[in-house]
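Protocol step 4 of 5: obtain the predicted structure for the target chain.
Materials: sequence only (see below). No template structures provided, no constraints applied. The aim of this step is simply to have a reference model before the mutagenesis design in step 5. Sequence pasted as it appears in the construct record:
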Amino acid sequence: MRVAWYYFILNLARFGFFVGLGGINVVGRENVPKSGGVIVAPVHISHLDPPAVACGTNRRLRFMAKEELFRGILGGLINSLGAFPVKRGEGDTESIRRAMSLLESGEAVLIFPEGTRGDGKHLQPLNKGVAMMAKRTGALVMPVAVVGTHIAWPKGQKKIKRNKITVAYGQPRSYAELATDETGKESREQFSKRLAEEIIAVCLSNGLPLGVTP
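Step 4 output (structure tokens):
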């Protein structure tokens, strides 16, 4: 029942809401693995990013979302779609364990590696937890660009305005492809640096040049 509900809401968003905003252009859909655990790692510049990324692929996604969203009607909706809360700024081991369990069972989990929304001009430092989850679970990590959501609904703006959105899926990478042979902290830092470079590259090639937050 939940899977059917997910695709029902997905199609409402895809053919109703986003068409009304100007539509979604999808690039690299063929890069989305058809099966197996994968961390979907998009740039984060708007509240529109999660549904836009979901609408760009026919694979069901699970979502790690900040706990503040799990309130009222919105909270009930995203919970019914398979989202689960994370406490930002804390070592939320419960949400990390849940994400790892989903990845190990072969699901695709959307995790914003920046942790919070940026300004559409800079990529913020990436959370080291993504590196840890990728290494321990063996899940692939897929960089994703979301272009145009920062115009339609930027951080701090109350109203949504029309603007066509592009979602571009980069090449999935394994932990070993992005990290060095070093162990521990050095390896995780190298992974995060390489993942940041790949996110920036796929954003740039689709019209969103990003610098790195100093």
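Step 4 remarks: The mean pLDDT is 92. The beta strands are 24-27, 38-42, 61-66, 83-86, 108-110, 122-123, 140-147, 165-169, 211-212.
Proceed to step 5.
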